[in-house]
Amino acid sequence: MDSEEEFDMQDAAAESAEDDFYSGGEEDGFDSDDADVADYEFIDNDSDDSDDLISHRHQQNYTVLSEEDIRKRQDDDVTRIATVLSISKVAASILLRYYNWSVSKVHDEWFADEEKVRKAVGLLEEPVVPFPDGREMTCGICFETYPSDRLLAAACGHPFCNSCWAGYISTAINDGPGCLMLRCPDPSCNAAVGQDMINLLTSDEDSKKHSRYFIRSYIEDNRKTKWCPAPGCDYAVDFIVGSGSYDVTCRCAYSFCWNCTEEAHRPVDCGTVAKWILKNSAESENMNWYGT
Ligand SMILES: [Zn+2]
Ligand SMILES: [Zn+2]
Ligand SMILES: [Zn+2]
Ligand SMILES: [Zn+2]
Fold it and tell me: Where, if anywhere, are coiled coils annotated (predicted)?
């Protein structure tokens, strides 16, 4: 796969152009790991026979991440997007989640068509209805009337009372990771509900669950990172896709194949290993069936 080097060179050229654009030629606009992000956008993840790439790079092609490392990286990415796009960190984290934590994807989509991105993600610039509108307003869920300081609205302005909001958010958090893409409760509205609002209205317990989904999403929805599959291990592994051997060794000492997450199996390819595993499990099922 000789095109790999060409991609790298193109990326490097594109990147330095970006750096110049955003930081007036200084080197601090985008840090070096942006190259990784760009790499995986171009390289097909499905190929197993990447052994011929090993000779290209000699440094370790993966990094083991603790929960603290993950939170720091996530926060760095959010801060970077907030700075480059001149938006709040709350909005930046909604965008990153929507684009599976790819900094380069958020960046490219935003500058290609900001309006389209805002619409898709639910980041409104202007409220749809004025809020607050008068001294008293009606909650859109329970239809009770409240003084407007007892109601809250996302950027769209649709008013709901504190207790209806709290119920809505708590239900979403307990329904699963969909709570990371929460929208206004008004069925016709897709305005995003940000972390700031969620923090304001959740119990400690729900807040912890939400924060767990947030960090899990950063690993599980991101194409460059995976959790270590060893039971009870909390480390994740960040892998430079397209960089050669998939064998990685976690800080817990477990060695596994980053591509298929089975035990390390070099030089056998992932497809063959999958067939072995299937065959073994079919055989053991047969044994259960015919034995005793
Ligand atoms: Zn209400
Ligand atoms: Zn709304
Ligand atoms: Zn591990
Ligand atoms: Zn494998």
Answer: none
